[in-house]
Specification:
430 residues, alpha/beta, UDP-n-acetylglucosamine1-carboxyvinyl-transferase, Chain, four-stranded mixed sheet, 23 strands, binds shikimate-3-phosphate, EPSP_synthase, Enolpyruvate_Tfrase_sf, aromatic amino acid biosynthesis
């Protein structure tokens, strides 16, 4: 689907972005293995999370939609899932596949996880390796590619040092370890999003979080208590509107109720380093996650370096940071971000290719890119989404700052994470 985005000088208004994608997936999975009824409010009803919901239903869990975003899940405990009679389709969602591979590895039945073309080409060896060390039986195509078929087993706990700072990998191991008895220790090379740990603790699991390690304490039998959760707005979705507001010539935008968990909020630190005018208002804690209303004002940005430990805390925001870099005075260097090459698409290659098509000067490095602004972008051409929601939305925000606008092909993929993105963008441009 082609999506024409015209330039906009002013970005103004008050909006609410949809629920956090990572927390929505985890709410569905953990509620399904809790002992009884959980309630989820503000669940992200986008394709990725609907894939997880469909799979939990295929595994015998009753999930009822009460009204928009509000669901009741009848959890059946850690031993209550049932074998599905068909393959489990994760669509475009890496989180579904990696987290569920962990969970299903310890279930007493057979499962097959598959996904779309993009997901079937993303690295799964990173979970197959450690899960196999715990005793899991997982078969894949060559090089660890999905579909994955899993013959559930009784697993052993383990101590594991993650080779990459990946919350999906960490969560996969934690879910697999829930049915083991002795202690599991996971050491992270850098802090990645910690929603799984927070939610497991919230459900009564004995888990200790130290600076770089997570310790799932020894237990003869673990049980998760059911819970009620209000999912905060997704900071990774808010980031597109924060960038749009900062890059506009005038206006101010209030984004209500956004999750600002430190393990996710690296983007806000970069906005400040780039001289972006943002304020965090009405800060509170909701269901174990910190939230705030974010007030954004049109700003003159300057370039900065984005590297090191902050990368996993803003990994999904790098495409939109690269858009901000085009409009920022001076040089922006993004490095240590090789993980971008194995996301829904190779996001470094995609950004570089489409920016060059638009006449933007950009240097590609194996682990990132360098951009010197301010660059005037004429636009008036068609660009590609690479079947990647964040590439499509980043290009839409870039289009606002061009002379002639941009047409984004393959924009239907935006519904993976942000179904009402286009409507909200139309609303704030006035
Ligand atoms: C996610 C973790 C990140 C992120 C993805 C969602 C999660 O992936 O890119 O969009 O919900 O755990 P990695 O943990 O593999 O970096």
């Amino acid at each position: 689907m082609s999506y024409q985005v015209n330039p906009a000088l002013k970005i103004n208004g008050k909006i609410k972005v949809p629920g956090d994608k990572s927390i929505s997936h985890r709410s569905l999975i953990l509620a399904s293995i809790a002992e009884g009824e959980s309630k989820i409010e503000g669940l992200l009803e986008a394709e990725d999370c609907l894939s997880t919901m469909g799979i939990m239903r295929d595994l015998g869990i009753k999930i009822t939609k009460e009204n928009t975003g509000n669901y009741t899940v009848q959890g059946r405990g850690l031993n209550g899932l049932q074998e599905a009679d068909n393959v489990l389709d994760c669509g475009n969602s890496g989180t579904s596949m990696r987290l569920l591979a962990g969970l299903l590895s310890s279930q007493d039945f057979y499962s097959v996880l598959t996904g779309d073309h993009s997901l079937r080409n993303r690295p799964m060896q990173r979970i197959i390796g450690p899960l196999s060390n715990m005793g899991a039986e997982i078969w894949s195509r060559k090089d660890g590619l999905a579909p994955l078929s899993i013959k559930g087993q009784k697993l052993q706990s383990m101590n594991y040092e993650l080779p990459v700072a990946s919350a999906q990998l960490k969560s996969s191991i934690l879910l697999a370890a829930l049915k083991t008895e002795s202690e599991t220790v996971i050491v992270e090379p850098a802090v990645s999003r910690d929603h799984t740990e927070r939610m497991l603790k919230g459900a009564g699991v004995d888990l200790e979080i130290k600076k770089d390690r997570i310790i799932l304490k020894e237990a003869a039998e673990r049980k998760l208590s059911p819970f009620n959760i209000k999912v905060p707005g997704d900071i990774s979705s808010a980031a597109f509107f924060i960038a749009a507001g900062l890059l506009a010539d005038s206006g101010s935008l209030l984004i209500k109720n956004v999750g600002i968990n430190q393990t996710r909020s690296g983007f806000l630190e970069i906005v400040e380093a780039m001289n972006g005018k943002i304020e965090l208002l009405n800060q509170k804690d909701e269901g174990g996650e910190p939230t705030a209303d974010i007030l954004v004002k049109a700003s003159k940005l300057k370039g900065c370096e984005v590297s090191g430990e902050i990368i996993p805390r803003l990994i999904d925001e790098i495409p939109i940071i690269s858009v901000m870099a085009v409009m920022a005075e001076g040089k922006t260097i993004i490095k240590d971000a090789e993980e971008l090459r194995v996301k829904e698409t190779d996001r470094i290659a995609a950004v570089v290719k489409e920016f060059k098509r638009l006449g933007i000067e950009i240097i590609e490095n194996p682990d990132g890119m360098e951009i010197t602004g301010v660059q005037k972008v004429k636009g008036g051409i068609e660009v590609e989404s690479y079947h990647d929601h964040r590439i499509a939305m980043s290009l839409a925000v870039l289009a606002l700052n061009t002379e002639k606008g941009i047409t984004i092909n393959g924009s239907e993929i935006i519904s993976t994470s942000f179904p009402n993105f286009k409507e909200l963008l139309a609303e704030v441009r006035g």
